Structures are given as C-alpha cells and as structure tokens.
Amino acid sequence: MHEMSIATSLLDEVLAALSGHDGARVDLVELEVGSLRLIVPEAMDLAWRSLTVGTPAAGSALKITEIEPFARCRVCGCEYRPELISFLCPKCGKADVDILSGNDIILKSLVCGE
C-alpha cells in the first residue's frame, strides 16, 4: 500500500507548515492527485487517519481531487489525454511523451483552527 508512504510524507509537510503556530490544529487537507499515481482514496484516508492520531492533524479530513493525465508527444508535438495503459500518440502512434499533468501530488491548502 503506497498510500501509507505518501500519507507519511504529507503529514511531514503539514506538520512543517504548522511549525511556529502553537496550538493550531488541522481541520482539512486539500490535495490534487494525478490519476497516474494510482492512489486509492479510501486507502489514503485510512493511512491518513492512522498516522495523524496524537498529532495536530488528528481528526482532519482529506479532500482529494483527481487530475487526469495530459501528455505531449516528443515526436510530433501533439498534446492529448493518454489512457492509463497506453501512451501511444493518436497522431503519429509513438509512445515517446512528456507528461504535462496527472503525475503529481500537490498539497493545495490547509484549513486550520485553534
């Protein structure tokens, strides 16, 4: 379950953002997750809830927005939405691409309270 390692890194980032804000607690963590990361939201939520026990993020909610992949063919320059199992360019048929979106995990915002 790679969600546990992702949740661990996320918690590190959240706690770093809270440093210097004594008494603050996290209510909501908003993420953008590329679909190429193959994150299972339920597994991510379970990992998050188990890791945050006893931290200022305990009881906080995760809001995950999935971002679809978008690619640019390095051969012909065509930009397209690849399928998860095939990166073949619809124009030239090559599978030599730059991924423009859909492979990131971005911490968009934190909602905190006292």
Describe this structure in words.
The chain has 114 residues and is an alpha+beta fold. The protein has a domain of 79 residues: hypothetical protein PF0899 fold. Helices cover 25% and strands 32% of the residues. The protein contains two helices and six strands; from the N terminus they run αβαβββββ. It has a three-stranded mixed β-sheet, covered by helices on one side. The chain has a three-stranded antiparallel β-sheet with strand order 4-3-5, with no helix packed on it. α1 packs across α2.
Number of helices: 2
The CATH topology annotation of the domain at 2-68 and 102-113 reads as hypothetical protein PF0899 fold
As a percent range, the share of helical residues equals 10-25%
Largest sheet: 3 strands, mixed
**Overall geometry:** elongated
Mean pLDDT: 95
Low-confidence stretches: none
Strand runs, count: 6
